[in-house]
Here is the input.
Amino acid sequence: MVNGGRVALPRGPAGPETTFNVMQFGAKVGKHMHNTQAFIKAWRAACDFNGKAKVLVPMGEFTLAETLFTGPCKGPDPVTIQVMGTIKSVDDPSEYSGNGWIQFDSINGLVLIGGTLDAQGKAMWEYNDCKSNPHCVHLPATLYFNGVDNAKIKRVTLLNSMGFHMHVTNCNMFRVSGITISAPRNSPNTDGIHISKSQTVIISRSTIGTGDDCISVGHGSTNVTINEVICGPGHGISIGSLGKVRNEQDVRGIVAKNCTLVGTTNGVRIKTWPASGASKASGILFGDIIMENVDNPIIIDQSYGTKSKKPSRVKISDVFYQDIRGTTIAPVAVNLMCSPGGHCENVHLENINLRSKDNLVLTSRCANAHVGYTGIQIPPPCR
Here is the structure.
């Protein structure tokens, strides 16, 4: 079956599963025992096995430096990695040269279940200069997926990433459920899940608290669904930032629903860079969202990241905010600051009910936005 231009993985007949325990390939428990080669050997054996295969990481604490798991694999079924224990990183920046601490590349069919991945990022955060350097090099993600199709990531705990906790790029049919992500609110650029150039991504029933966006949807993302996510601390759920680099692909078909944001610096946000190339972000729904003491609950910011006077050329259209309710610490609860270089078209707010935590009179602010309203509107609509 073809899905989005790629071939969906066929399911093989039911049969026994062969387990490849990393201990059998030389892995040893202990913080001073580097296990990268043992893990890669176990993966290679499972990936090359022509049948149902599972890599098992048993109970205990294992230490890994930068590790790359590559495909394609030979079996008819997804390769499963089951983590029962804890995996910790080597906290030496010289050990990392790529995009991720644990990387998966060119795999059709992957299941990652359970365990705790502790990147021990605090030792690396001092090397992050992204606040002062717009061309900074991001620190490695805890999990970096490139070209991984038909994947399920379930019941994994990610702690204290160096950079992003999870980066999903060039992927198709990618599901994340029941995960927990945690890093301090002051940890730099520790996005929970960042998605780019991927299609049909589903994130559900997860709890994410970080020092940056809980979930960020970057350029080239289509058909992304975010459902039943609790976010906080962090910077909220974001589309973007978009328009930072040349020739970015469009974003469309993004749904965030049944989510709760607690104490975040933004709620649901669309952010684009000024002086950008031309691209589009359309078909976006934020629905049934609860805000608890959130700053900037509803925001479009098309002057993100720089003070350039050149307008953003990311065209935003067909954006729907439905049934968004709760409390805010900001006096401006709805802030739609669109670009003079291409007004936001067909933005619609339905049943918005936001109250001030401090009993302030809330307002809305709009610029260069064509906005429609139905149902309850607290704060009152832009005039």
